[in-house]
Amino acid sequence: MGSLLRSILPISIPKKDDDDEYNVEYSFATEYTGPPVSYNIPKALPIDVGCISTASIVSTPVNSGNLSLPVIYPVLKREPKPFSGLIVPEANSPCSPVGEGSTASLGFSDSQENSSLSSDKDCHEIEEFSASEEDQAHHDISDYENRTQAVTFREPESSTTDQEETRYSHEPMYQERPHADPNIKKGLCHRCLKGNRFTLKESCIVCDAKYCSKCVLRVMGAMPEGRKCITCIGYPINELKRRRLGRCSKVLKTLLTDNRVKQVMTFEKSCLVNQAPYSLIFVNGQPLTFDEVLLLQTCAYPPKRLVPGSYWYDKMSGLWGKEGHKPCQVISPSLIVGGSIMENASNGNTKVKINGRVISKAELLMLKFAGINCKGCPHFWVSHDGSCQEEGQNQMKGKIWEKPGIETICAFLSLPVPPKSFISSEEEVVNNGSQIVSKKVDVKSLTKILLVGQDQSGTSAIYKQAKILYKVPFLDDERQKIKSLIQSNLYLYISILLEGLKQFEEDYSIQIRKKLADQPSTSAAGGSVKNIEKNIYSLSTELQSFSDSLLQVVKSGNLEVVFPDVSYEYSGLVEKLWKDEGFLATYARRDELSTLPMVAEYFLSRAIEISSMTYEPSDEDILYADGITSSNGLASMEYSVPSSPPVTFMDATEQNDAPLQRYQLIRVNAGNLGNNCKWLDMFEDVDLILYCVDLTSYNEFHVDNNMNLINKMLESKNIFENIITHPSFINKQFLLILNKFDLLEKQIITTPLTQCDWFHDFNPFITSYTYNNGSSDNNKNNSSVAQYGFQYIAAKFKKLFSDLTGRKLYVSSVIGLEADSVDAALRYGNDVLTWIDEENKHISGNNEYSFESSETSL
Ligand SMILES: Nc1nc2c(ncn2[C@@H]2O[C@H](COP(=O)(O)OP(=O)(O)OP(=O)(O)O)[C@@H](O)[C@H]2O)c(=O)[nH]1
Ligand SMILES: [Mg+2]
Fold this sequence. Notes:
By secondary structure, the chain is an alpha/beta fold. Magnesium ion is lined by residues 456, 460, 626. This is Extra-large GTP-binding protein 2.
């Protein structure tokens, strides 16, 4: 007795029988010998009844003659209007299948004429029903997550897992998929045929039909495979949409609760039928079999994005990459997948080999950094734990992954490192799970962003700001180092003040002597001389000896070595300094001390607190602190950007689940890129370059090696030219960050842009009155002149970029010390990437996201 529903997926794909109903066929376990069983499901189901497609609740037999047929109880939240042709149960009453032996009232699949649902009138009723109860429906939808959505088999001991796998392994993976009706006018909802190109819509990941927010849940039901029409369930996705899997649009987010959205997105990413068709995945030149894909996806360290394409895999080391490219990941080693690795797999040209593959330039640099001698183009064997050995020699050259600093250098070179838990035991690394279906394929593609600029342009401030903004924590020992640095910086600033104080003291003495010389009669009036003799800049003996020793240490260049260790011993003296009249008088004249950095004031105003033992730097202190990035100017971090509420319809059109998108921000100082930025090819796989320019550098100069005075803005322009024309960066997207806008506002009034030759024709049409006087509207005027200045500089760079590359440069004005400003610039960078992506798709005739669709960002 008893038939079994074999799967939550219909075995034969739902076929559209007529305009109003879908006929869904289910097949049964072997003991069932009866005719096929099918259900007629009205096309215009109220949303809740859509659950029927996932066969909610338990199947129980219905005795229809000699047959026992499974029965599905649809989960209904509210009383729907009864449909004839489909039994709508009373509470707990079953909705019976269509099949031989069922009663006529159940609606045989071959007696569709019995179904009055097919009449226009009834369809109309359904529309009305939905409209009048829309609010209620919203409540109901939010309760979705509380419902049972999976099939429970009546005889659980008869597990179907094996059959399921067998079925998938025998079926061709690449099935013909349904397509949306091409006759439906663009912009219209494919169900209600209403709306326009501005209507928010969600599209089916199989057929690409687009539905408005009123229709989407009706058409997609419970979404057991993610965003698919009920009729598309069981079909493979449109491969062009693979990148979008698990990334939800605004429409669903407004209709479902957060948890429910997450659940649907997880179904979408992890269900078997949505996985990449294995025959289109090549590893070391060979197409994969289903078992090989299974092995790859369930191993301990699987490839991050296994989409159709050609990959190479070094089975010994676990290095994995796209054919013709350097490695992008270290996956579990020793997996028996694909063919043997080819010598030219990664298109390397260094003649040095690792496990038979000629490595890329970046890998060669990494080996050199790890202290491995690569002279004479040797061939190495490298195992999964990084043990390196030259071919034919018994001598071990050490473990690459254990070399200090290897992670930073790999980030710098855009090379992968194995995860920390990439354990020494090969078996454990190779260890594979077996349940592909339940495995969550949490794909997070990494967008790489390179932040580069001249020294002092503010790259460091922007990098730290991003770290704070996107909550990438500073590690404990990192904080400790920062604390020491801030404290030694403080003593440096104090030493500059003390140096100034010495000068002021001397000047004052000269003044006294001059006065005495000018007024010889004063010497007769003893009291006056006494008054004049008191030099307010003189320090007490104790403070004087502190000043002498501090200046001595600074002169010797040992400040950072000496002071962090003894800073607490001097904190009492710092306190005394802040009570000393002469020191306070010097502090009041700090603007006259050109060597005192602007940021010094921020720390000096809290000198006593900062020099104390209990001081812990705040995020803001870290942001303002100079010299935190490593000495070679290279830093890298990964982060994700939380989604922000849409501001415009444009934003709302494609609200992805932003936290899923990961970014790597690599910050490098242009000075470290070598002559003509030759090291830039290490960053050839970045997606976006943020070039940072200090807006106030137009009147700054520095002396080059040939003792020429170089304008810093012109130097920045030269570096920019080198970067944008570098062969590795052809066709890369650039966002110009014009930083320190706050300082430009102050500076542009007193120092016109024309001080830089490049800006000789700057003429903002501002009256001389605006330029010169301090009217009450001064700030406003400063701001508008600065705005002109910004626009003008942006236009100069845009023209330069367009002349050299023939493309468009994106520009953003930034204040590196303000979180919102940096956040906006980085988000703008992400938008640029999205636009370009969409544009490329459009140009290449790829119809994945049509421009009229709500999902478009443009
Ligand atoms: N007022 C103001 N100061 C800024 C801004 N951006 C950066 N700064 C300051 O300008 C100085 C130079 O900026 P950094 O971030 O150190 O720039 P960098 O020289 O590229 O980075 P490093 O090489 O690590 O020093 C620092 O003191 C920053 O605090 C800004 O937008 N406004
Ligand atoms: Mg700096």
